[in-house]
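During the practical work, I selected for study one protein's amino acid sequence and its backbone structure tokens, as given directly below:
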Amino acid sequence: MGGASSSAVGDGRRIKVISFAGIRIHCRSQNLPSAEGQKNPPALAGGVCQEGPLMRIFRVILFVIALTLLVISVMQFKNGYNDWQEAQSVEEEYQEALQWLENKRDNLKKRVEMLKTDTLTKERLIRKKFGYVKPGEVQFRIIKPTQSN
């Protein structure tokens, strides 16, 4: 897939050819010894790497692909964030509805408890719904007059 070869140049420099997927890079380096007695890589020895035209095209293609992936990622993040905000507002609405239902349930429980234990509450309900009166009481009914033309 990739490989490297080097050859000597007459003035003491070496040319290193690196190929990757058919793309060749020519690196010239000076013959400078390193601390361990080995030659430094081209970047450290002040060497110059020359890229072929295929490598330039390859870099442009990689840049375009990276830029495209970045744009897609930003769009996906934006969509996900919008969905999250919508879910938060729906959750708030459900919490409000739940709170209202819990209050209603609590009020109904209190009313049931009062109907079970409080005789005055039972009496008021029976009088209002069924129109019952105690013996000796007089019941009055107010009738609204109807308008005749």
